[in-house]
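User: My collaborator sent over this chain with a note saying "see what the structure looks like." That's all I know about it. Can you take a look?
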Amino acid sequence: MDCIYKIYNNDIGISFRWKEIPSRLIQVIFRDTGFHLTVEEIELFIDKVCDAKVQRSCASCEAAGSCRSLLLQTPSDKVSMAVSISELSQIEDLLRGTLFQIKMNNYLDDLCKN
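Assistant: Without extra context I'll predict from the sequence alone. Here is the result:
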């Protein structure tokens, strides 16, 4: 883990930047899938998570919390993921936590420059 700057993590995943690779992109990894995202794409992903939250599981499903019946669109038009409601909640936390940390770090960097 010496080669990354960890931004945020939770039970489902991690977000980070590579130390040796100068880039605006943030690596967000969850459920064995990695995304290279800009801040704007993270914000868009959060919007798509909110859209997925209005989907309903099957009414008679006994495994509604763990059943991967929700379709989560990603910032890439060509990639969608089937997720459970509990995974969706953890993904939202990962994305919001990442965005918060990035904005806080940028704010503190700007504050310290003055």
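A starting point for your reply to your collaborator: The longest helix spans residues 85-113.
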